[in-house]
Each structure stands twice: as C-alpha cells, then as structure tokens.
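[INFO] parsing input record for Membrane protein YlaH
[DEBUG] input buffer:
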Amino acid sequence: MDITERLTFFAALFKVDENPKLGMWLLYITVIILCVIVFKLGFARKLPLLQNIIIYAFLIFGCTILTFFAVFLPIAEGLVVAALILIIYKIRLHQERKHKEHEV
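[DEBUG] output buffer:
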C-alpha cells in the first residue's frame, strides 16, 4: 500500500510525503489557526491577559500533538467542520437576537 493513499486532505495538500519539513510546518500552522477559530467561536470568554496567554500556550502545545495525528486522521478536516457549524450557529444567534430587538 502506498503511503500517499492514506494521507488526509490537508496532509496531501501540503505534500507531507514529498517535503516533510515544510509540509508538517504548514499542517501545524493550519491546525493552530483552525483550533483558535473553533476556540474563539465556541468557548472563549473575556479573561485577563495572563490567563489568555496561558490558555493559548496550552492550545498551541495541544496542536503540536494533534498535528502528528493530522497526517493520517482527519483532524484538520474535523476542525473545519466544527468551525463551519459554529459560524452558522453564531449567525443564527445574531439574527435571532436582532429579530427579538425589533419585536420589542
């Protein structure tokens, strides 16, 4: 079995099999960006600066581990789906709040 057949979409897109160093860095950055988006849309609250720094440091550390899984498992793809669902939820929530303001 060829290893390129088992790569996920983003791993194949960044050609992790041909250029592992650059491909893994691009995959790592992609996973970090997607994790930050999902965190901000779904879980983030207003916190003091030091607590935000600690949270994002642990988030980036966790993304390091997730990047290794993302080569063969659909981690980044799942984060894209989660981000899309949360974006749709936020849009619908905003529309509902706007509609309630106009009713009152």
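[INFO] Helices lie at 9-13, 20-42, 49-69, 75-103.
[INFO] shutting down worker
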